[in-house]
Design brief:
With 174 residues, the protein is an alpha/beta fold. It has five helices and six strands, in the order βαββααβαβαβ. Helices cover 37% and strands 24% of the residues.
């Protein structure tokens, strides 16, 4: 793809992910970042981790080393899953540091349902007005029926926007 992309990567640091699972999310994030040409005329990225608190690890940047350092230093918070606030923060970061000429994309890696499904569905709809929204559902706690509930609530549109991984060890960006 030759078009510029501003991509926000959101990492679920909630308790249900588990320490090992969060470590695997971070490995995935590093591999994901490394698959892109991070530079000012191509892809720029920002990183958010979320649990009860929302942590902006990086605004949109073209500094790959900074992004990788942010992922490495991100800690597992082990609280609940405040997905709505994470999505809202992603929009704020895109508005503040994104490029007008770039396609905006929000990729959210999560192992479960948000604490407030209604608020998350409303925020997901707002994100989809401005950006492509992609959910990567990970972990053994997400049976197929839960995928359907994610889709039905509008948290992820049908098709390529929901990427399912059955175990954390299958987090491979390919």
């Amino acid at each position: 793809c030759d078009s510029p992309i501003d991509l926000m990567l959101l990492l679920d640091a909630s308790g249900s992910v588990g320490s090992k699972g969060f470590g695997e999310e971070k490995e995935f994030a590093e591999a994901f970042i490394n698959r892109f040409e991070i530079q000012s005329d191509k892809t720029e990225m920002g990183i958010i981790s979320f649990s009860y608190y929302i942590t902006i690890g990086s605004q949109i940047t073209d500094n790959k080393d900074e992004l990788l350092n942010v992922v490495e230093s991100t800690e597992w918070e082990a609280y609940n899953t405040n997905t709505a606030a994470a999505l809202g923060t992603a929009l704020e970061v895109l508005a503040a540091s994104g490029r007008e000429s770039a396609q905006s994309v929000v990729v959210i890696i999560t192992d479960g349902m948000p604490n407030d499904s209604e608020a998350t569905a409303m925020m997901a709809a707002k994100v989809k007005e401005k950006a492509r929204l992609i959910f990567v559902a990970v972990g053994k706690n997400i049976p197929e029926a839960r995928d359907e509930r994610l889709l039905a609530r509008g948290l992820a549109p049908w098709g390529a926007h929901l990427k399912r991984r059955t175990t954390n060890s299958s987090l491979n960006p390919s």
